[in-house]
């Protein structure tokens, strides 16, 4: 596996190659649409103002002298909002080095020649690859953040919770929605001149949170002269100005069911934290 220095703030995610090298899958995903508790409902909880997990935030509204409070995710709250092994199905094992995961298959320079009539799309596809590797599909968090990772056979799952600027978060979600069209299929070249075919399609996300987007990214190339296909399932769910990002998959294919479970359980945990409650782990039951 290609490991990057541990000083990097965030990382990507991937599986174990047959040749013995580790690949990783980077992060994310969920489509638009409202759902779940509103910010005003969360703020109404008396526990939210007292909890160390979510601090009160006062924001002026458009109406004169009118104010509303919304909870702010704290570092302790972000850590508490992370899912655990008991939130997932199957035999996923939590790991301690998820922040160091790296992925060589994701790294590459987009072949602009693939975009004959829409060369600006090449920049978006390059941004996608870079964001997958750096694990910042939603941009850098502006507030508290936490991440954890899990392994099962040749698959890995990276789970993140973070606070963002609301406008930038909305822009990032809208950008993700355009990628299945802009980057449906293209070629990327690695540092040795090898070519990889990248395909991007939309992926369903459970109807939770305030907005969501899902993507499936497939990278086909070679490793040790052997054909290799890395498939990554990405899911992003917005809850107020916070978001959870799930990236799962590997050389054995996608982990769509597990991704859905992580999204459902994780959204519930984040809402509990923002409401000042301590979440309880519940085994997922996504079919």
Task: List the keywords.
13 strands, two-stranded antiparallel ribbon, 287 residues, nine-stranded antiparallel beta sheet, alpha+beta
Word description of this protein:
The strands form three sheets. A nine-stranded antiparallel sheet has the order 5-7-8-13-12-11-10-9-6, sandwiched between helices. With 287 residues, it is an alpha+beta fold. Strand 11 and strand 12 form a beta hairpin. The chain contains six helices and 13 strands. It is 24% helix and 32% strand.
Short description:
This protein is of the alpha+beta class.
Described by strand count, sense and barrel closure, the largest sheet is: 9 strands, antiparallel
Euclidean distance between termini CA atoms: 33 Å
The number of E-state strands comes to 13
User: What structural class results from the helix and strand content?
Assistant: alpha+beta
Q: Beta fraction of the residues? A: 25-35%
Instruction: Spell out the helices and strands N to C.
Output: EEHHEEHEEHEEHEEEEEH
**Apparent shape:** globular
Mean pLDDT: 76
Helix run count:
6
Rg value: 19 Å
Uncertain segments are 1-51, 58-67
Strand order of the largest sheet: 5-7-8-13-12-11-10-9-6
Percent helix range = 10-25%
Describe the SSE topology.
Layout: E1 14-16, E2 22-24, H1 39-43, H2 46-50, E3 54-60, E4 67-73, H3 75-81, E5 93-95, E6 109-110, H4 120-134, E7 145-152, E8 155-163, H5 166-182, E9 185-189, E10 195-202, E11 211-223, E12 226-239, E13 242-250, H6 256-274
Antiparallel strand pairs: 1-2, 3-4, 5-7, 6-9, 7-8, 8-13, 9-10, 10-11, 11-12, 12-13
């Amino acid at each position: 596996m290609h490991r990057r220095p541990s000083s990097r703030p965030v990382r990507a995610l991937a599986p174990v190659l047959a040749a013995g090298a580790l690949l990783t899958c980077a992060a994310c995903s969920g489509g638009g649409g409202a759902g779940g508790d509103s910010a005003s409902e969360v703020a109404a909880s008396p526990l939210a103002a007292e909890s160390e997990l979510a601090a009160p935030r006062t924001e002026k509204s458009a109406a004169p002298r009118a104010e509303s409070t919304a909870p702010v995710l704290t570092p302790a709250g972000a850590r508490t909002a992370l899912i655990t092994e008991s939130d997932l199905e199957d035999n996923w094992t939590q790991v301690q080095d998820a922040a160091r995961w790296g992925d060589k298959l994701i790294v590459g320079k987009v072949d602009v020649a693939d975009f004959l009539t829409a060369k600006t799309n090449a920049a978006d596809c390059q941004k996608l690859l870079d964001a997958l590797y750096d694990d910042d599909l939603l941009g850098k968090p502006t507030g508290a953040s936490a991440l954890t990772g899990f392994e099962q056979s040749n698959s890995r799952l990276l789970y993140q919770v973070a606070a963002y600027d609301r406008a930038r978060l909305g822009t990032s979600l809208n950008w993700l929605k355009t990628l299945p069209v802009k980057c449906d299929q293209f070629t990327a070249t690695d540092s040795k001149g090898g070519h990889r075919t990248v395909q991007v399609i939309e992926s369903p996300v459970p109807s939770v949170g305030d907005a969501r987007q899902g993507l499936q990214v497939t990278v086909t190339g070679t490793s040790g002269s052997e054909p290799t296909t890395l498939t990554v399932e990405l899911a992003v769910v917005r809850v107020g100005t916070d978001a959870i990002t799930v990236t799962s998959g590997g050389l054995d294919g996608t982990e769509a069911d597990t991704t859905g479970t992580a999204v459902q359980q994780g959204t519930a945990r984040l809402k509990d934290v923002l409401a000042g409650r301590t979440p309880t782990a519940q085994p997922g039951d996504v079919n």
